[in-house]
Structure formats: C-alpha cells, structure tokens
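The passage that follows is intended for readers who have already worked through the single-chain material. We present the inputs for a multi-component assembly, then the predicted structure in tokenized form, and finally a short commentary. You are encouraged to pause after the input and sketch how you expect the pieces to fit together before reading on.
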Amino acid sequence: MTTDPVAPLGLRERKKRAARRAMSEAALKLAAEKGVEQVRVEDIASAVGVSPRTFNNYFSSKEEAICSFVVERQERVREALRERPPGESLWEAVTTATLETYRREGEPNRDSVKIARSMILHPAVHGEFLKAHATVERVLAEAILERAGAGTENALNARLMAAIVESAVKTAFFNWLTNDGAEPFLETVEVLLREASAGVPSLTGPGPVKSPKK
Amino acid sequence: MTTDPVAPLGLRERKKRAARRAMSEAALKLAAEKGVEQVRVEDIASAVGVSPRTFNNYFSSKEEAICSFVVERQERVREALRERPPGESLWEAVTTATLETYRREGEPNRDSVKIARSMILHPAVHGEFLKAHATVERVLAEAILERAGAGTENALNARLMAAIVESAVKTAFFNWLTNDGAEPFLETVEVLLREASAGVPSLTGPGPVKSPKK
DNA sequence: CATAAATTTGCGTGGCGCGCAACTTTTACT
DNA sequence: AGTAAAAGTTGCGCGCCACGCAAATTTATG
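Having made your guess, compare it with the prediction:
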C-alpha cells in the first residue's frame, strides 16, 4: 500500500494512467471530429475498448475528459518550476517555467482555432474548462509556495500570483481564440505577463487612454 | 418589439424579470437549506409556482440559477463605474466601483460560510460559479473599455485589467471561504487590489520570500 | 375587440451519473 | 508458487435532467 511517488510504478498504476490518457485523448479527438454534442460517453468508451461504466470511474463527464489535458500540462509547469535555478527571482522563475512549458507545445495550430472555439465555448465544456484552470491555479499556487517557502504569510500572495499568471495565460488564449488565431498566443502571453508584473500603470500607460498618464 | 432599455418596461418584461429573480432566489434558498444534491428542478419550479419546463426556459440548470446572482451583481458594478468622476484614473475608478458595490452588500455573513463552501465547492455548482465569474470578467472588460475609450489597442489591456481585478476578488473570496470567514473578505480584496496594482515587487517584497526573515 | 406576438406548459426522447453487487485482475505474503 | 486480500471492471437499474415540439394561454397593438 506504499504510495511512493518515486518507485517505478506497478502494473496497476501504469495501466490506470494509460487508460485515463487514452480516454481523454479519445474524448478530445472525437469531440473535435464530430462536435461535442454528437459524442456520447458510450462512443468514447468503446473507442478505447472499455465499458461506459468504467469511463465514469475515471471521469464524471465527457467534458471533464475533454479538459483534463489542461490539468496535466500544469504538472509539467510544476516540474519546470522545480528546475529553475535557485538564484532566480520568484516571478522570473514562475513565468519562465510557464512560458517554457507552453513553448514546448508550440504555438497552437491555427487551423484548429474554429474547432477549439466551438468546443471551448460550448456551455458544458466551458464550465469544465474553467474548473480545470481553477485546478491549475491551485497547483501553481502550491508550487509557488513550495519555492517561496511555505508560510501563512506567503500563502495568500502565492495564490494571487498564481491567479495573475493564469489571468495572463487565459486572456492570451481567449484573445487567440476570438481572433481566429491571427495574433500569436505565445507572444501575447509574454506581453501580458510583463504588463502584469509591472503593475497597473503599464495597463493604462502605453495605449491612448482617456485620462493622461502622469 | 422595441428593446429600448430606458422605456418604463412593459408588463411582459417586468413579469419575466420577477420570475427570473424568484427562481434564482428560490434555487439559492433551497440549496442552502437542503443541500444542492437534495434539490430537484421540480422543487424550485413548484416553489415559485411554475412548471419545470418553464424553469428550463430561464435557466439551463439549477446550478445556473444558483449562481446567477454573481452576474447580476456585476451590472451594479458597471453602473457604479459609469458614475465615477471623469478625472479619476482608470484603475482608481474600476477598483472603487468594485469595492463600493461589494461594500454595499456588506461583509458576507460568517455563519453562512460552511453552507457557502459546501455549495460552491460542489462540482456542478463550482463550474457554473466559474462560468458566472467569466461572464463578470467580460462585462467588466467591456465597462473598462467603455471608459478608457474603445480601441483595438485597449481591448486586450482592458481584458487583462478585468481579469486581474477579478483575480483579486476571487482569491479574497476563496480565502474567506477556506478560512471559515476568519479573515474579512472586504479588507482582503482591498489589500490584494493594492498589491496587484503595484505589480510583482509587492508580491515578493513584504513577505519573507527568498531569505527567511525570522 | 381582434389579431399578432410572446410565453407557458405537457409530453416524449435520448442521455447521463452513480450506487450496488458480482466478477476479474493485480498485488502481497508465506 | 499458492492463496487470500485489495483494487479495478462491468452490467444493471434508478432517478434525474435538458430540450424539441406543438398546443394552450397570456400580453401587446392598432
């Protein structure tokens, strides 16, 4: 009953992960092909050779399966953060880890923007997508706290920092989605992270805003 | 078929709004009393003297009804923002309008923290809650853009600013939720808004981040 | 008041999530 | 290796839900 996360993972665990991954991939693929509405749990289950009941042991809805990649990616961010050099400032480390991870995935495929949009804006999926991002935020806050040194003092700030970073990511992604992928996602994330780090003035500053900046 | 938002609203429209409000209030009340799981759409519908089918014409799920107050509150924020003096800086106006609106509601009742927590963290409700906040963010971004002066230049920054403000609000609220309401919500929002406006340094600065102070 | 427009409602359908109780596979221990 | 326990899978059944459709009812308009 050892839950040693380092040990080389027994057969049981490996199978479970493979099954989970297969289901989420199938869910994503099918939803992209046929449209979210047109995919039933049964379709996903049979696509990976498992019973619908088993699918529900892994995911409590097809929407959750579709969005689970979001959370999984954050595990990679967490690892990337652990590997940032100790000398680096907290913010530098967090943003670099985040950007690095997204860069590794590459700029999202422009051809898939319409499909992605219709999927993510679909009401049922949208809720799950946001839930996934909330989880991501929690994971990131934990990772930040781990690096900053746990302490009740820092906990709230870690959460705010995580929330701000995720705000930049989500805003950039949404921008990409609604612009038919015309503006590159990665660059936008970078820009927004920089603006957020500089604080509010940078938000009202560069653009032609109503009240003159002082 | 006039959709004049100024005209004194015919009987039709008033009834619809009353019905909607009644349903969302009933949904919230019943869910608080009996627990989310124990409330069926039918219960809410009959509580306001309407058919279940009609309920679904207004809300596509009971969770949506439960969370609809979040979006409605944002309409008040928008109005508050419109009434900020023109001389005020954008950020000042936005945060003041937000804080003012929340202050008008008063510090959330500490006795209800457990109920609130069990409701909002309930998976189905959680998704809707986040969807509601996403809507709030959109509404706020529009209001900001309206004040800043529309322009493609500003659109992205407006969205980021809205996202940051909402980050502060959500983080403060979540903090309140998980601390059994021990830390006051309103003050926390204020603190976080100030920190966010100052940018990253204030997040890493005050606390004993890298070098332990004690 | 008559007629058009909008809203409510009942009904039917397809689907879903999960508790439960077998059944099968993996693991742990001698 | 052999066996018992633990964990995972599956079929079944139940209650519930969202929504299309068309008929009935209510409100608006000239």
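Commentary: Residues 1, 12, 15-16, 50-54, 57 of chain B lie near DNA strand C (CB under 10 Å from a C1'). Residues 112 and 129 of chain B are 17 Å apart (CA to CA). How closely did your sketch match?
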